[in-house]
Amino acid sequence: MNLERLKNIMADNGCTKVFVKPLAPNDNSKNQVYLGGSDIFNLFPMSDITAESPGEWKRERFKATSDFAWIGEEGQLFKAPNAQFILYPKYPEVRFSGFLSKCVNAPSDLMTIRQAGRLLFLSVSNTGQILGFVTAPDSVLAREFLNVPSRQEGVFRTFELMKRDSKVILMKELSRIYQLGWIPSKRLDKYGAVLDCNAPNCGGYTLEAELGITPNGYSEPDFLGWEVKQFGVTNLKKPGNAVITLMTPEPTEGLYVSEGVEYFIRNYGYPDQNGREDRLNFGGVHKASIKHPRTSLTLELIGFDADAGKIKSAGGKIALVDEQGNEAAAWSFAALLQHWNRKHNQACYVPSKSETDPLRRYCYGNLVTLGVETDFQLFLAQMHLGNIYYDPGIKMENISVKPVVKRRSQFRMSSQYLGSLYKRNETVDVLGY
């Protein structure tokens, strides 16, 4: 295998970027392969993140399965069904393991030994599969890699397979959309067909429709690796502070899950504040450690060390706790970690204005905020400070006859705090592209 052939195999599988890890003696199947901190969850697709509490022989950790395959010398792909990523939040560090187990034609000769200088090549296909190839330090491939222009990203040396800059492409698209002016409200269905959109929250749908983003039910970025989020303002030239919905995950634990949404609303909801009859609402801003006056629930961060800014318990969660100590609803760190890191590693926040006379329409600003390299622990730190809060829009109508429930759980923040969620952020004028 030489470098050009490996690049072609990866490109043929829809890969665009290659991560190269020089392996240390301890990087092997017995000791696991060290990949860096928890930001690794941003780079590689993972699924089924589960928490493991510490025991006699194991440390506190999260485990995540992955769709991983080794590239063979002839370009074939050999799946490693037991490959997994393990996050030890105490440090934090992520290790890769299980990559040889039950894999036909796995590179056991190189991944079971303690030899420094081996090179592990990793890339992500357009289907979300992680592809890997390992080579000896004295191989042709290893010698060729010495001359490849690359940059350091954590423990990896990285280089691009395709000569395209996703940031530039996105900025050019947003510049085009800015210059369109007022755009009729719309949305795309899952097949890409344009539909009318008449709800107050159609600003995001309209922007996504212009970008060709169809609805997806999985936690992947929207546009060439970028998560694109719109937020409403009154002045596009001075966006100022505006409320941004960061994510809308359903609870994974608590009475909301075990007893159902109707039970949750009947016990913690309240009559509609505008006097609409036969209706219960559950809403309002819930901030950490503050009991909400209407719902009597307190938002608690369980298993997060605010002083250290780290998760201290793999079984941790964000919980709404009632006055009796019951968890009315909760979101496990394991579920939120997977969603946040992968979907928000590169995010673009676009201001918008709206009007409804005569028909609903939107226009978008030229000053956008870009955030790169996030970490779920940064999210939790801002929630501890009260800058991120839970602000649901849950309701139940026709409660005495045939109840109809609307679910909408929202974690939101003011745009002034966006920079605290990313290691790098900037405001960009899209007209410069």
Automatic annotation (TrEMBL):
Pfam families assigned: MvaI_BcnI
Record-annotated MvaI/BcnI restriction endonuclease domain positions: 172-422
Gene3D superfamilies reported for this sequence: MvaI/BcnI restriction endonuclease, catalytic domain (3.40.210.20)
Keywords recorded for this protein, A-Z: Plasmid
Organism domain of life: Bacteria
Protein name: MvaI/BcnI restriction endonuclease domain-containing protein
Organism this protein belongs to: Runella slithyformis (strain ATCC 29530 / DSM 19594 / LMG 11500 / NCIMB 11436 / LSU 4)
